[in-house]
TrEMBL record:
Start and end residues of each Mos1 transposase HTH domain: 11-53
Listed transmembrane segments: none
Pfam families: HTH_48
Family annotation (InterPro entries): Mos1_HTH, RNaseH_sf, Transposase-MT_Hybrid
Name of the protein: Mos1 transposase HTH domain-containing protein
GO MF term (any one): nucleic acid binding
Amino acid sequence: MSDNNFEQRCAIRFCFKLGHSATETFQKLQQVYGESVLSRAQVFRWFKAFSEGREAIEDEPRSGRPSTAKTDENVIRVRDLVRSDRRLTVRMIGEQLGLTHTTVHHILTNDLEMRKICAKMVPWRLGATQPFQSTRRHFGTLENIQSSVTDELKAIPVTEFQNCYKQWKHRLQRCVDSQGNYFEGDNVK
């Protein structure tokens, strides 16, 4: 379950306990989460479940074949392989260990809490999730595009850029110190 879904379920339970209606709860979630809000039907289902006495926010266990590739042994194998050569890609690790790309990625990100460092080199407001207000807008001229982009960049607080470059400098130094073998989340020196 994603963190976003978990947060929204917590909010639904919270609103239920405050005595809000399902409709009010859905409207509040829309204000906070925008387009990433749970569907109205999901909100109403969870609201009903809480009204019937459910306390757990997590999903119920599902039937079907359980995952067998993500074992403690495979987690150790992936960890050891990554530590021996940090330049391996997820696909290369999967091929060497006979695991799927998805399983390796899950082990790296969830179990070993590792991420490639280059994912953090951009200020948070410049990331792929930045919803530019100029999206789906016809600019007409190059000057209009430049003006819109400049306005967006000027709206980012100076402290965001400063923090980004401080973090970038720190990560770059760790990457240099480890000769390019630095993974974020790896606490091994």
